[in-house]
């Protein structure tokens, strides 16, 4: 069922392409999900089943994308889900340690540029966006 949902959703960019003019149109999305459920073979009243399954598949794909490439075995739907790559924006993350260029005589750090960064952090059970200044 998962592979059918992936292929069906791929045919309807309104469900994943945030730059689509109809991305925020609820009626278009309901129509698209109705067609996806028909392709998958579920009756119309199971739209939420398709949506939840897609959300789970998309979330697993995004987690797998973050993993380092290497000898680790990839998720079986990773290649199929790669059509999402142009529509997924990476979120910058950083640690809370600031490194600097301290001279050998212990002089003040020599930072060259200040760059604003928006980072996403987990606060309790909610994600929050933090505006930071990163010194280089």
UniProtKB/TrEMBL annotation:
Transmembrane segments: none annotated. GO terms for cellular component: nucleus; transcription regulator complex. Residues 4-89 form the MADF domain. It holds the Pfam family MADF_DNA_bdg. It comes from the Eukaryota. GO terms for biological process: regulation of transcription by RNA polymerase II. InterPro entries: MADF-dom, TF_Adf1. This is MADF domain-containing protein. It comes from Gouania willdenowi (Blunt-snouted clingfish). The lineage of its organism: Eukaryota, Metazoa, Chordata, Craniata, Vertebrata.
């Amino acid at each position: 069922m998962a592979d059918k949902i992936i292929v069906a959703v791929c045919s309807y960019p309104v469900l994943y392409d945030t730059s689509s003019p109809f991305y925020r149109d609820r009626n278009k999305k309901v129509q698209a999900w109705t067609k996806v459920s028909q392709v998958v073979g579920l009756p119309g009243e199971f739209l939420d089943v398709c949506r939840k399954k897609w959300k789970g598949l998309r979330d697993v794909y995004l987690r797998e994308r973050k993993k380092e490439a290497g000898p680790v075995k990839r998720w079986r739907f990773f290649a199929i889900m790669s059509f999402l790559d142009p529509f997924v924006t990476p979120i910058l993350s950083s640690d809370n340690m600031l490194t600097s260029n301290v001279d050998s005589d212990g002089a003040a750090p020599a930072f060259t540029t200040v760059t604003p960064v928006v980072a996403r952090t987990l606060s309790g059970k909610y994600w929050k966006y933090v505006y930071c200044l990163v010194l280089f």
